Amino acid sequence: MGDRLHSVDTLRAVAMFFIVVAHVQPFRGFGTYGNHVYFALDTIGQFDVPFFFAASGYFLAKSMDADSAESYVKGAGRKLGSLYLFGILLYLAATALVALLQGVDVVNALLARRLGDPSLVGFLYYGDTIGVPLWFLTALFFSICFVALFVRFEKTRYLLPVAALFHVVGLVGTNLQMLVEIPFETRDALFFGFFYVALGYRLSASDWTPSEDRSRLYLGVVCLLVVLQLAEQYAIGYLLRDATLSQAIISTEYTLSTVFFVFALFAYGLSKPGLGKRTVLPRIGRHAVGIYLVHVPLYRIIQAVNRIWGPAVGIDFSATLLWQLAITPLVYTLSLGVYLLMARAGVIELGGSHFPWLARLRAQITSLVSTRGSETN
């Protein structure tokens, strides 16, 4: 299959675009037809975060065994922790900058928007205390921990069934609250991320290699499941609630069809490992996490600028068709550019620490202490 799955990197880039759609929300509230467009885009894109979990599980299986499980978890903790703390700094910096642009007190803005109601569980496990989208990073870490336990004790044959049971509870808690009340958050590591990481792990551990001759079949199944997901989410979001798209957008999160959608999409990607190789998409996909960290803080700054400058020129740009068409690709592209610019400036290391200056500072202190010790002797 080759040294690198260009198809997975390509699909990461596509999935990241839909994540930006979910947070930027183009066309939402832009009339009845705008709601329809946003509902379609958001629903089709529900494979986005699950695909990232599954991809992580797929490559985890190639790097972890019973002997290396503990060290792998420690390495994942360092890497994801670095990303998480860097993401928090970006959210806090964006909040401070928006406050400065609006002429309000920065400290009060931080307390009101980010630090006013801290939660240890929210910070360490759910990951949504400072910035809601950062939940993915903590969920991924704990999902890796859960999978590592099965690997460490060589019980991986139970891995996917156990993860699936938890995910069923998660699906009920997310989508059927009007029928079954589950008194805890289910969009987390245990009830959501664990299953998709386990799914990716099993796909890799089973050494399943879909034939390229069947790639069209897999693509056809993907298209069929897109239609099924649209129908299922419309039924859950509107038919069961007796609502209409013209009234409001009702987020249904992830549904049962999402499981099969992600599986079929992954099968298609494995059947065409060179997908997107001659395009820029695989390179973008390798930096998808950077776009993930930057896009929401960047979008909030753009919104603040529009709110400040819009009245000055007599135009609310967010109410224009041009904004609805351009805002998602603009945020996507700028986020990638900002992330790569930070890497070039030495603020972060691509694929490495997002606090390299700490290592440099530590090395300087160590060198200074060593020099003074030599002079004393």
Describe the structure.
By secondary structure, the chain is mainly alpha-helical. It has helices spanning about 5-25, 30-45, 50-60, 70-100, 105-115, 120-125, 135-150, 160-175, 190-205, 215-240, 255-270, 280-285, 290-315, 320-345, 355-375. Helix 1 packs antiparallel against helix 3 and helix 1 (about 5-25) crosses helix 14. It starts with 5 loop residues before the first helix and ends with a helix.
Short description:
With 377 residues, this protein is mostly helical.
Number of DSSP strands? 0
Main β sheet profile: none
Helix fraction by DSSP (H/I, runs of at least 4): over 70%
The helix-and-strand class reads mainly alpha
Shape category: globular
Question: Distance N terminus to C terminus?
Answer: 59 Å
Give the percentage of residues in beta strands: under 5%
Rg estimate, integer Å: 22 Å
Query: How many H/I helical runs?
Result: 15
Low-confidence stretches are: none
Mean pLDDT: 89
Order of helices and strands: HHHHHHHHHHHHHHH
